[in-house]
Specification:
The structure holds 2 protein chains of 2 kinds.
Chain A (H helix, E strand, L loop, with lengths): L11 H5 L1 H19 L26 E3 L14 H5 L5 E7 L11 E9 L8 H5 L5 E3 L14 E2 L1 H8 L14
Antiparallel strand pairs in A: 1-4, 2-3, 3-5
Chain B lengths: L1 H40 L15 H11 L10 H18 L8 E2 L2 E2 L8 H9 L2 H11 L3 H24 L1 H7 L4 H11 L11 E2 L2 E2 L1 H9 L1 H27 L11 H4 L9 H26 L17 H30 L7 H28 L4
Classes of the chains: A alpha+beta, B mainly alpha.
Chain lengths: ~180, ~375
C-alpha cells in the first residue's frame, strides 16, 4: 500500500534558499582553507613515500618460489598450485629427476614454472596448498610490464623475487 | 583606405593577442584551477605531478587530447556533428570582442571593438552558444546527448531572459550600452556593485571640499538608494550566468550522473576538448562581462586611470597593470564559480524551470521598475 511521507515544514529562512547557500559555501571554504594552510592530513604521496616498511608479515603480494638455506629449490612439481589456482595463472612443466641422483626419491622437479601476473589475483591459495612450502606470497605489489609476455614471471624471476626461506621442508628429509 | 587597413590590422592584433595570449592559456589554467580547488574542497590533493604544483598539467592534457583517436560514430549526421564543437567554442570567444579588458596600451584602447551596442553584442553572440550544444545533441543520434541538447536549449532560452533583463537597470543608470563608457561611468561614480564612490580621495591626497560635497549632497545619498536595484541585478545576473554557462547547480545539459556525459557523450579527442574548452571560455566571458558591468572592469581605486597622461614607459606599465587588474578580477569570479560548483547539488529540471520563469524573470522585471522609479525622482 502506498503511503504518504510527511514533508518537513520548512521555515521561511529555509524556503528562501539563500541562508543555506551561504552555509554550504562556508563549509566548503573551511575545507578549502584548511587544505591550503596544510591543516588537513592528506594521503601518502605514493611513489616518493611508501608504506613498504609497515607491510605486515602476512601481506599477500606477488607469489614467488623460494629456495632453502642450501640453495636447493623446494618445489617438487606436484602441480597442486597449478590445479588450485582460480584464474589459472600458474603453468608448470615437470621434469624427472634422473636415476642415480641423490634426490631420486623426490622424483620430480619443475623444468618450467610460470606465473602469469596479469591473471594472478593474489589469493594465496597456491601458498596454502603447497605441501613443500615452496611457494610464498611475498611483499612485492608493484608488478608492472610493458607487454603481456613481460608480465609472465619465469622460474628464474620467481626465485629472484622469492629469495631464501628457512624452515622445515619434507622433501629434503631422508626419512620421509 | 590605408586607415581602414591599419585599423583592421590593429583590431586583428588585439583580437588574436587577447585570444591566444590571454584567454586560451587562462582557459586551460581554469581547468587546472577547477581540478585543484575541487580537490582541496574535498580534502584531496589534486593533480600535482606534472612540473611544480602540477602546473604543467594543462599542457599534458592538451597533448593527450590531441593524440587521442578522433572517432566519428557511423550513425551521426556528419555535417552537424563536425560543426557543433566549433559552434560551442566560437561564440564565447567572439563575445570577448567588446569587453574593455584594459585602459590603453601604446595609445590604443584595450578593447577589440569599441561599439555602441556592446552589451547587446555580448548577449546576441553568447546566446548562439546554445546551437553548439543543441546541434551536438541532435546530430549525435543517441539518446543521452539528445536529452542533454533538449535540456540545454530550454534552459539557456529561459535564463537568457533574466540575464538580459537584469542588466537593464545598469543601462538606465549609465545611459549607454557602450561598455567602455560604462567603465568610464564606474570610474567616476564608483563600481556599480556599490555605486557610492567618495569623490576627492586619490593617491595624491584628499580633496576635502569635493569629499564633503560628495558625502553631504543629496545627489550622493540618492546614489545609495540605487544600491538596492543594482545589488538585485547583480544576484540575478550572476545566477543566470551560472545557468547560461551550464555550471553546477544548473549543469543539466551534461549531468554526468544522469546523462552519461550529456550532449558530448559521443565526442572524443579534440572535438570533445572543444566542448570542454568552450564551456570554460564561456565561463571566462561571463566573468569578464560581470567584471565589466559590476566591478569597474580594469579600474582600481587610488590608481591613475589614464596611461596617456603619464610618460611613455610608465604609461605602458600602467596599461599592462590595468590588464592584469581586469584579469585578476575575472580570476576571483572564476574562483567563486568553481567554489559554487563544488558546494551545491544539481537542481531538478522542474525546479530549474520554476526558478527561471517564476522567480528570476519576475524579479528582474520588478527590478527594472524599481531602478526606473528611483531614477525618475533623482534630484538634478
Amino acid at each position: 500500500m502506498a503511503y504518504t511521507v510527511a514533508r518537513p515544514k520548512l521555515s521561511l529562512g529555509e524556503r528562501l534558499y539563500f541562508p543555506a547557500v551561504f552555509a554550504g559555501m562556508k563549509i566548503t571554504l573551511k575545507h578549502f582553507l584548511a587544505m591550503l594552510t596544510g591543516k588537513t592530513k592528506v594521503t601518502m604521496q605514493y611513489p616518493e613515500q611508501k608504506w613498504d616498511t609497515h607491510l605486515p608479515e602476512h601481506y599477500r603480494g606477488a607469489p614467488t618460489l623460494v629456495t632453502d638455506e642450501h640453495g636447493r629449490e623446494r618445489c617438487v612439481a606436484c602441480q597442486l598450485c597449478e590445479f588450485i589456482c582460480p584464474p589459472r595463472a600458474i603453468t608448470i612443466k615437470p621434469g624427472e629427476i634422473p636415476e642415480g641422483d641423490r634426490w631420486r626419491k623426490v622424483e620430480k622437479f619443475p623444468k618450467e614454472f610460470e606465473i602469469d601476473m596479469v591473471r594472478c589475483i593474489y589469493c594465496g591459495l597456491c601458498e596454502e596448498v603447497c605441501p613443500e612450502q615452496a611457494i610464498f606470497l611475498r611483499k612485492d605489489y608493484a608488478i608492472t610490464g610493458l607487454s603481456r609476455a613481460e608480465m609472465v614471471h619465469k622460474k628464474d624471476r620467481l626465485y629472484e623475487l622469492g629469495g631464501v626461506m628457512t624452515g622445515l621442508v619434507f622433501k629434503w628429509n631422508e626419512k620421509k | 583606405m590605408t586607415d581602414i587597413l591599419i585599423g583592421l590590422l590593429i583590431a586583428l592584433i588585439k583580437g588574436v593577442g587577447l585570444v591566444f595570449v590571454i584567454i586560451l592559456p587562462m582557459v586551460s589554467y581554469t581547468v587546472y584551477a577547477e581540478r585543484r580547488v575541487s580537490a582541496m574542497i574535498q580534502d584531496r590533493v589534486g593533480p600535482n605531478r606534472v612540473w611544480i604544483f602540477g602546473l604543467g598539467q594543462p599542457i599534458a592534457d592538451a597533448v593527450k587530447l590531441l593524440l587521442k583517436e578522433d572517432f566519428t560514430p557511423a550513425n551521426v549526421n556528419k555535417f552537424y556533428y563536425w560543426l557543433a564543437p566549433a559552434c560551442a567554442m566560437a561564440p564565447s570567444l567572439m563575445a570577448l570582442a567588446v569587453i574593455p579588458f584594459g585602459s590603453s596600451l601604446l595609445g590604443q584602447p584595450m578593447v577589440v571593438a569599441n561599439v555602441d551596442i556592446g552589451v547587446l553584442w555580448v548577449f546576441a553572440v553568447s546566446s548562439l552558444g546554445v546551437y553548439g550544444i543543441v546541434l551536438a545533441g541532435w546530430s549525435s543520434n543517441s539518446k543521452y546527448p539528445f536529452l542533454g541538447g533538449i535540456r540545454s536549449s530550454s534552459q539557456m532560452i529561459s535564463y537568457e531572459l533574466s540575464l538580459g533583463l537584469s542588466v537593464i537597470p545598469i543601462f538606465l543608470i549609465c545611459g549607454t550600452l557602450n561598455l567602455p563608457n560604462i567603465v568610464q561611468y564606474q570610474i567616476e561614480n564608483g563600481w556599480l556593485i556599490s555605486p557610492i564612490w567618495l569623490k576627492g580621495i586619490s593617491l595624491t591626497g584628499i580633496n576635502f571640499s569635493l569629499l564633503a560635497s560628495s558625502i553631504f549632497s543629496g545627489h550622493a545619498l540618492f546614489k545609495l538608494l540605487l544600491w538596492v536595484p543594482l545589488f538585485i541585478s547583480f544576484v540575478v545576473f550572476m545566477v543566470s550566468m551560472f545557468a547560461e554557462t551550464n555550471r553546477l547547480p544548473f549543469d543539466l545539459p551534461e549531468a554526468e550522473t544522469e546523462l552519461v556525459g550529456g550532449y558530448h557523450t559521443e565526442y572524443s579527442s579534440m572535438k570533445f576538448a572543444l566542448f570542454f574548452l568552450g564551456e570554460y571560455a564561456a565561463m571566462i566571458t561571463g566573468c569578464a562581462v560581470m567584471v565589466t558591468l559590476f566591478f569597474g572592469a580594469w579600474h582600481l581605486p587610488f590608481f591613475p586611470t589614464d596611461p596617456q597622461q603619464l610618460p611613455p614607459l610608465l604609461g605602458f606599465l600602467l596599461g599592462l597593470f590595468h590588464i592584469a587588474v581586469f584579469f585578476a578580477k575575472v580570476a576571483v569570479l572564476l574562483f567563486i564559480f568553481i567554489w559554487v560548483r563544488w558546494t551545491f547539488p544539481r537542481f531538478r529540471y522542474d525546479q530549474l524551470m520554476r526558478l527561471g520563469w517564476y522567480f528570476f524573470f519576475e524579479i528582474a522585471l520588478a527590478n527594472i521598475l524599481l531602478a526606473a522609479l528611483i531614477l525618475a525622482f533623482e534630484p538634478k
